[in-house]
Amino acid sequence: MTGVSIIGSGYVGLTTGLALAELGNNIVLLDIDPEKVRTIRSGQPPFYEPGVSEMLSEHLAKGTIRATSDYHDAVMDSDITFIAVGTPMDKDGRMDPRYILSASESLGKALREKNKSQIVVVKSTVLPGTTRDLVRPLLLRTSGRPISGIGVAMCPEFLREGSAMHDSLHPDRIVIGCSDDRTYSALEALFSPLGSKVLRTDTTTAEMIKYASNSFLATKISFSNEISRLCEAVGIDVYDVMEGVGMDKRISPHFLRAGVGFGGSCFPKDVSALLHMAKGIGVETPIMEGALRNNDIQPIHLVDVAERLCLTLKGKRIGVLGLAFKPDTDDIRESRSIPLIRELLKRGAVVSAHDPEAASNFLNEVHGIDIQGSAEPLVDSVDVVILMTEWPEYRNIPWEEKTHLEWVLDGRRTVEPARMMNLKYWAMGSPLP
Ligand code: UGA
C-alpha cells in the first residue's frame, strides 16, 4: 500500500485518486478550495460523473481516501504526489500555467519540512517543456532540497468525461515521462495492477503525447465533419461512408462520428494551446487550425440549414435538447449548444432548452432563453426541435406522436431515423432535404 497525495480535486484529480484507492493505495486529496474539501468529505463529488459518487462514499467509509486543504498534511502522509490542477485557456486561447505554478510552489514549501524523498508527478495537461523548465526548477528552489530528494515525472491522463472511472481503471496505455530509474520503478509498480501497456519516455515527450493525442482526435472528428458537409450536398450519408473508412485498421472506426462538432474542456483548449505555442516559436500548423475552424463552422451550418428549411427563424419557437458538451456530464464548456443558441437568437428565434444535468450551468453562460425542466413538454410547445446532446432519455420521447413539429434536426444521431418516418427529420451528415 502506497501513500499518494493528489493536488486538485477536479475530474482528473478525483478520478485518479479513486482509481489508485481501488488498487489498494491510501489517498489524500488536496484542494485549496475549502468548499470542495467539505463536499468531498461529505461523499459528494464536486461534479456529475457516473460511478464517482458511489466509489467516493465507499472509500471514505473504508478510510482509504480523505480530503484536506493543508499541503503539509498531504505531503507528510504520502510518498508520491500527483499534480492534477486545471490548465485553463487564457482569453487569447493560450495555456494558463498559473495553477500549476502555485501548486508547485506550495508543494515545494511543504517538502522543505520533510526529510524523506518524494516523487512528484505532473498529471495536468501542460505544454511541452513545462515539467522540465517550470515545475522541476520551482520545486527544487522552493523546497531547498537537492535533486536526489525529489523525483519528478510527467504522466498524462487520457480519461474521458462521462466514462472517467472506466477509463482510469482500464487505460489503453500508461505514459511515464521521467529520467531517473528509481522514480520510474516506483510509478511502474504503482500502476502495474492495472495491467496496461506502459511507455517510458522523458517528461517533454510525455507532455507532447497528450497534446498530439487530443489534437489528432479533434482533427479526426473535424475531418469527418468536413466530409459530412460534402456528403450532405452530394446526397449520401456520412455514417455509411465512415463505416467503410473506419474498417481500415490504419484508421479505426473511433472518433469518426460526424455531427455538430466537438466540445468539452480538452479538445478546443488543447488544440488552441498547441497552436499558440507553435505560433510563438514560428512553426506553421495549418491542419490544427483547420480542425478548429471546422468546429466553428458546424453549429452555424446547422442554423443555416434550419433557416433554409423553415424559410425564416424570426419568431420561430425552437426547442434545443441537450446543453452539455456530451451525455453523462453536466459540463457545458465549449459545448456546441453555446454558439448554436447564440446564432439562433441573433437570427430572431425564440429559444427554449432542456438538459437533464447541465441546465443550471448553461444559464450562467447564455441569457435570453427559457430553460425547461422536462424534455417532452418542451417538444410539445415548440415548432422546431434541435437535438444537440445524445442523452438516452431523448430516445424515449414518443416522437411518432409529435406530428405538430415543423422539423426535427439532429446534430448527434440521437434518434433512430426509422422512428421519424412520419415527421420531417434531418440528421447532420445525411442528404440535405
Ligand atoms: C477527451 C479525450 O477523448 C480524452 O482522451 C482526454 O483525456 C480528455 O479529452 C482530456 O484531455 O482530458 P472528453 O473531452 O472528456 O475527452 O470527451 P470525448 O469523449 O473525447 O468527446 C469530446 C467531444 O467530441 C464531445 O463533444 C463529443 O460529442 C465529440 N465527438 C467525439 C464527436 O463529435 N465525434 C466523435 O466521433 C467523438
Model description:
The protein contains 15 helices and 14 strands. The chain is of the alpha/beta class. The strands form 3 sheets. It has a 6-stranded parallel beta sheet, sandwiched between helices. Strands 11-10-9-12-13-14 form a 6-stranded parallel beta sheet. A two-stranded parallel ribbon has the order 7-8. Strand 10, helix 14 (359-363) and strand 11 form a beta-alpha-beta unit. Uridine-5'-diphosphate-glucuronic acid (UGA) binds next to helix 9.
In short:
The protein contains 15 helices and 14 strands. The chain has helices at residues 11-22, 34-41, 52-62, 71-76, 98-111, 130-143, 164-169, 181-191, 203-234, 238-246, 267-280, 286-310, 337-346, 359-363, 375-380, and strands at 3-7, 26-30, 65-68, 80-83, 118-122, 150-154, 173-177, 197-201, 317-321, 350-354, 370-371, 384-387, 407-410, 425-427. The longest helix is centred in the middle third of the chain and has 32 residues, at 203-234.
